Amino acid sequence: MSTQFFCGVDLAKHHFSLHAVDDHGKVILHKSVSRAKLLATLANMPTMCIGIEACSGAHYWAREFNKLGHDTRIMAAKYVGPYRTKGKNDLNDAVAICDAVQRPNSRFIPVKSPERQAILATHRVREHWVNERTALINRIRALLAEFGIIIPTGRAAIHREVPLILEAVENGLPDIARAVVADCFDHLQTLNQRIADTEQCFDMVTKASPNAQRILNVRGIGPQTATAIIATIGKG
């Protein structure tokens, strides 16, 4: 029976810590390398089961390691913590990751393709813009309320009433406040366009994906939910 090898890689921005063992626990690698030398180091190692913690860049590095012939598995930090028996530092973290990736009770996160990552990134950015838009609308309402100008509830009311308020010279709104509200309203329109652009992106992805098309057959699901599902669930 051929020997199996396991490796834990503690990911970072510039320096990476590696700890690798064979299936008898013999250490075959225990060192830190620079970002520039990471792939070259792993390319010279036998095929290994590599464990990494879920973090920024984990899916990218998993894909790169897999290109070298390794089997890379991404783990949540909660599965690594119990195997950290020494003080927390990068090399000790690599040892803990190496131990955790060998355990049958560990659960792994499927490695995502760049395309699926891009879809999820678009969802996160859209969510940020929606939250920013809500906060901006509340800010506009509060600014105008300070001068006795009340806008009815609802986003549509903001878009309907604010242009009229800005044009009305007799409403007692000081010029400085008028300029601030105008700037806020301009930014609101920019956010509306950015959110609309992401929704157009979701429409395009849905039309190009047979899986997303099938999900659309479920009542109440649109392109936004369909793209989130296909990007989150499954492999590749």
From TrEMBL:
InterPro entries: Transp_IS110-like_N (IPR002525), Transpos_IS110 (IPR047650). GO terms for biological process: DNA transposition. Pfam families: DEDD_Tnp_IS110. Residues 7-147 form the Transposase IS110-like N-terminal domain. GO terms for molecular function: DNA binding; transposase activity. NCBIfam families: transpos_IS110 (NF033542). This is IS110 family transposase. It comes from Salinivibrio kushneri.
